[in-house]
Write the structure tokens for this entry.
Amino acid sequence: MSTTKVKEGSFVKSVSLVSGATAFSRVLGLVREQVLAYFFGASLATDAFVTAFRIPNLLRDMFAEGALSSAFVPVFKEKLVRQSDQEAFNLANTVLAAVLLVVGMIVLLGIIAAPAIVFISAKGFTADPFKFGLTVSLTRLMFVYLLLVSLSAMVMGMLNSFGRFGVPAFAPAVFNLGMILSMFLLRHFFGIPIYAVAVGVLVGGAGQLAVQLPLLWRIGFRLRWRLDLLDEGLKKVVRLFTPMVIGMSAGRINILVNTLLASFLIEGSISYLNYSFRLMHFPLGVFAVALGTVALPKASEIAARGNMEELSRAYRQALGLNLLFIVPSAVFLAFVGPQLVSVIYQWGQFSAIDTRHTALALLHYSYGLIGFAVVRVTVPIFYALGDSRLPTRISILSVLVNMLLYYPMIRALDFAGLAAATSLAALLNAGLLLYYLPAKGVPVSPCRVLLSFFKLAIAACLAFYVAALVPKDFIPWESEVISRVLNLLFTLALGGVLYLLFCFALRTKELTLLKRGFFTKRSID
């Protein structure tokens, strides 16, 4: 059996491991959102918390799981492949020292400037002084999370580079568990119970970092203070990091504008968009993020060896698996959105009106899921090849288009127009990345990708259309709760089975790829 074949099977199984751990984390994430919805609904308090948490969360995307991790892993992996473990660990200590210094200063400035930040990002809250003040206070409390998650992302990048994917993928589950337990155990200790959720963010962030440290110790890493600003490895990380931050800054500004506009719309708009985005993010995290997590260190290793043919094959494999799972997920969210939102959120303080509004936002996030997913597995290829500038330019262009779409979309769809504009921009971003990827020496035909997408979309639409038509009242249940849950599970299970059958009938290459990756490990182009 060839090395390529073995590695291909290993890639699929690594993705499966990360997907499984991520799925568990995402389930806990949904439970976290359910608990939040149960105790607080779509209220003034949840609007304040979502807005406050969004600010350090946006910076997290740049300084943690986004630009920092994507810039660090290729350089770290190159050190491992071309030099030694010790040289790679020296680089890690240098970068960690720089992160502690820079992110620590950002956290301090964020705490001081919280009123100005909230004023810029949610000016509509100024009409209610209590709501504005609560948001400022929550922002200050949760800014420390940025430092915790930045360190956690560095540790995750090192572990992934050594092929250790399970524990880092499980770590976010600890974060969600910390938030859930804090809401249950601490809310009675605060005059304003929403503070318990903010404390939970810090508890979960500390746990997410701590759970990865024993494995990092076992692979041989030892923490040393090594701040060398002239280190060549650090300079290379900064060169990759800088354009990524510029591109992501445009995206973060876009999200702040999104929040600002939503703050002027009907009360609960920010919460509706947040709850629906979390549901959309579930399959994105389980499949696309898992693929991107495994793809970045693998692509960096292949790129360090200069094997473009193997890199192209690995990318086509990742893209195919991505579409196989993401397309039916998008169709499911669009077709069964109201039923799904009802089962997940409509308990306690979350009303039927909240369900209707959240489902509408989810409908317009659903088609954007495909764009987000393609971006997640395509951008790491550019980073592995040392090009962070082109994805940055494309990201900035997509953000500008997104902002231009806000006005007409809000006029047409109210708060759901914000979701629609975001989704259309994500599709544009994905399309442009696919168009320019061959210029980097990674041949991929946009026409073939579109053909594969349409075959999968046809299979998914037929499957879930039929599943939605099948009567589900053939087993009587006195409990409305059990009935709602079982109806949803039946639709999901039947639609999934029909989707696989239709994919088999249409002879989709992606289904064959999945089967070969798990069972025969044969190569497929």
